[in-house]
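Q: Convert this sequence to structure tokens.
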Amino acid sequence: MEWAWKQRGKTACINYPTVIGAMTLYNITRDEDYATKAIGVYNWARTNLFNTSTGAVADNKVDNNPADWTTHTYNQASCIGAAVMLYKKTGDVAYLNDAVLAADFTKNKMCDGNGILPFEGGEEQGVYNAILAQYMIRLIVDGNKPDYLPWLRKNINTAYGKRSSSTGLMGKDYNTTPPAGTPVSAYDACSIPALMQVVPPEK
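A:
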């Protein structure tokens, strides 16, 4: 799948969600053509946008240039989601291994020294970790990988302890309390509630 820039570019944020979309349609219709297309797109993305040694997901590849290995939690997340959906359909553990590798890179390389998820400036970037929540729970449940739960709970608890005193909202920087009296955007406030929706509390 291409993104029309001044040059012809293919991006993780288009290709992995395309796999997810195709597999969602397959799950609804049981039309194998959707699964076949999903596997084809995934294979291209794995060859060009996925580091099979580290689990890093490249942001994009333009023309014949090397891939841009800038990493974002959104791209890691959609790679995880795509891989888990293909694993669930095919039973091929290679897809599950890709998902685990991408999740481990996110946890061990992208987080700070305390395991707290990164954040980025800009408005839409606040939603990135909400997307991660959506697909990490699929890895945990469908891939039977509950060992990620303590890490996600730590992020929830850290951010919850940094709620704004005036709004009760959390920002996208989980280590920092939003200033009192300062609005918090819906994008910035959404990721921790998204994690809370899918991560069960510790028993």
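The first strand starts at residue 3 and ends at 4.
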